Amino acid sequence: MEEIQQLIHDPFLQDFIHNFLSGEITLLTGILWVAIAAGCAIVGGAIGGMILAGQDLGYRLSAMIGGLFGPAAVIPSTILGLLCLKLVF
């Protein structure tokens, strides 16, 4: 229990949470946003693959392929978008 209290009162973690919730883009918050976008892209790619090719390839294979190809466009565009936001604002 004491470790959790120390973790909650850690200034580094408090700064990270403050930056994340206030929308300030730092290196760590950018990495977290890319991870969130990649997770959503994997799920969305799997669903899209199942819808598009589920009947032809089978639902499991199409979900696997969609999950692999989903983040191919999302991760670079997320990084580019975060860089543009950081430089403009």
Helix proportion: over 70%
How many helix segments?
5
Number of E-state strands: 0
Structural class: mainly alpha
Shape: elongated
Task: Give the amount of beta strand, in percent.
Answer: under 5%
Following the backbone from N to C, one meets helices and strands in this order, namely HHHHH
Tell me the span between the first and last alpha carbons.
40 Å
Radius of gyration: 18 Å
Largest sheet: none
What is the strand and helix layout of this fold?
Layout (H helix, E strand, L loop, with lengths): L1 H7 L2 H12 L4 H31 L1 H11 L1 H18 L1
Helix pairs in contact: 3-4, 3-5
Overview of this protein structure:
With 89 residues, this protein is an all-alpha fold. The protein has a domain at 39-89. It contains 5 helices and no strands. The chain has helices at 2-8, 11-22, 27-57, 59-69, 71-88. Helix 3 packs antiparallel against helix 4 (59-69) and helix 3 runs antiparallel to helix 5. 11% of the residues are buried.
Features:
5 helices; elongated; mainly alpha; 0% strand; 89% helix; 89 residues
What's a concise summary of this model?
This protein is mainly alpha-helical. It has 5 helices and no strands.
